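in:
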């Protein structure tokens, strides 16, 4: 049941996943007892499913129980505990319970810095979440600090041309906008567009190509190539798809050389 539930999550069938996780919890409790680690794992995943279905109270109940079991099984310095703290905080943030969410994110951050390191991508994810709460509350200095820390980690691990990095830049831009620093906000948003557009267009093209939709793939490759040519200051004939793909590679090589 547990593996089947995980497979349902991967294809966004969360209602079916909920049924399977609940069945898994019942079986695991009968076989191993209510406090077993397998029950904690299933409760964790069930709580995340409920959050994706916007059933926040049920999500919080499952994740709270999972956190309690994980803390008993792992003590307080394990990534399993940090992950559940982070997920429960995400649920509470959705219901604007910001004090409780902040406390859980800070607990997750302390564990992740100790267990995974200050430059781990999961550490950056928790820093970003703390920044979002800071932006929501108007505590801009803390929000900016967390955003910049997250951005440094993301640039080192996944690079500039990634939606995660662009999302953090967008958060910085929104903080500038809230502070009425409009020029800085525009600069951040333009950087998001420049960094994120090319990567997403190319990846969409690859997916269309994989599905055999060659016309849609070609359109995406042309859009990506046009964006790259603008950045490189070149004029390119749009009918040559191979030129478009080659341009994307040249653009990325130029960025690596200048970074």
């Amino acid at each position: 049941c547990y593996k089947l539930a995980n497979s349902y999550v991967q294809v966004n069938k969360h209602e079916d996943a909920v049924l399977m996780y609940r069945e898994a919890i019942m079986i695991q409790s009968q076989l191993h007892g209510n406090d077993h680690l397998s029950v904690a794992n299933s409760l964790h995943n069930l709580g995340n499913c409920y959050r994706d279905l916007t059933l926040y109270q049920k999500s919080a109940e499952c994740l709270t129980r999972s956190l309690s079991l994980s803390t008993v099984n792992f003590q307080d310095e394990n990534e399993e505990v940090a992950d559940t703290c982070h997920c429960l905080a995400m649920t509470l943030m959705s219901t604007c319970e910001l004090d409780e969410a902040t406390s859980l994110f800070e607990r997750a951050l302390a564990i992740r810095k100790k267990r995974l390191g200050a430059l781990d991508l999961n550490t950056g994810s928790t820093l970003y979440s703390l920044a979002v709460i800071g932006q929501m509350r108007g505590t801009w200095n803390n929000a900016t600090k967390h955003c910049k820390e997250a951005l440094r980690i993301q640039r080192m691990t996944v690079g500039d041309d990634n939606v995660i990095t662009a999302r953090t830049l967008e958060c910085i831009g929104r903080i500038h906008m809230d502070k009425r620093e409009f020029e800085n906000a525009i600069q951040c948003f333009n950087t998001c567009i420049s960094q994120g557009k090319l990567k997403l267009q190319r990846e969409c093209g690859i997916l269309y190509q994989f599905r055999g939709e060659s016309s849609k793939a070609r359109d995406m490759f042309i859009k990506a190539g046009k964006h790259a040519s603008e950045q490189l200051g070149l004029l390119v004939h749009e009918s040559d798809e191979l030129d478009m793909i080659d341009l994307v590679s040249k653009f990325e090589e130029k960025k690596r050389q200048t970074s």
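note: The CA atoms of residues 25 and 39 lie 6 Å apart.
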